[in-house]
Each structure stands twice: as C-alpha cells, then as structure tokens.
Structure prediction request, 176 residues.
Amino acid sequence: MFMSGDHIELRAVEPSDAQLLFSWENNQALWPVSFTQVPFSRFILEEFVNAAYQDIYTNKQLRLMVDSKETHKTIGIVDLFEFDPQHARCGVGIYIHESFRGKGSAQECIKLVKDYCFGTLHLKQIFAHVNQSNTASLGLFEKCGFEKSGLKKCWHKTGLNSYEDVWFLQCIHSVD
Prediction:
C-alpha cells in the first residue's frame, strides 16, 4: 500500500494487475477519454507491470491502482502524467470501474493524489482535461477544488468530421 484513505488505498502496479489492465485498456468505450486509438497487447502490459523501475522523475508519469479497503478488490486506476518538475505541475486522470462509482471513491482518490502531489512532490499545481460532455467528471474535479481555467475548442476528435470541446481544469496549491 502506498497511500490509504478511509475507504480506498492507492498502490503501485503489480504483475498480478496485468489481466485487469488488459481488460480496462482495451475497453473501446473508454478510449475517447484516454487518448487511446489502438489496443494494447498482453505482452506490452506485462512488460509495463514487470518494469523494475517506476519512477515519476524518470518516466514523467506514474500509474497507481485504486483498491477498496472493504472488498480488497482493485476498483480503478489513477494516472499522473506530463510530470514537469521544473514548473512543478502534472496532469491527473482517474478511472473508477462503473460498478464502484457513486460511493465517493473517486473523490477520496483525488484527495490522496493531491496530498501526494502537494505534500511529497511539492508541486504547485495539478491539472485535468475533461470532455465538455462528461458532466460527472467535471462535477467531481470541481468538487475536489479544481477550477475551469480554459476551454479547448474542438480538442477531441469524436468522428470523421466532429469534435468535442475539452475543459482544462487546474488545482493550484496555495501555501498560507
């Protein structure tokens, strides 16, 4: 376990997570929000989970698994990406499996990530990109202290000639 809240724990990716990641990463319904357009092979995901060195400073990203403390099951993933220590910022993306949504897990997950980013990594800000139509995620991030700071017009291609606007949200850490 890496970080623990009231109902969830965040932990590093383990080799035993490969099959679960394979099913989630290859779920085409999730691709529009994960910038994915091609499937991941089992081999690639097994290589990823077996990587001996997962360091945010080296890889500029970090994936953490979200586990339920009650059921001891993995219920989601949180990704830190575009880590930029020079400018003290990184992006955050979160996925909670649909059968575990609506229980506060995503909100608790973001709180733990904020604690890690601001308290351990000493970042000034974390950010998220959220499709304009994803009202649940927009509400979640705003509830967690993120503010809409810009609308990226026609940012995500959703079809042959269709695009969706994407909100850029930021949570800026203020030290009192």
Remarks:
- The two ends are 30 Å apart (CA to CA).
- The beta strands are 3-4, 8-12, 62-68, 74-84, 89-96, 125-131, 147-159, 162-172.
- The longest strand covers residues 147-159.
- The helical segments are 18-25, 31-34, 42-49, 56-59, 105-120, 135-143.
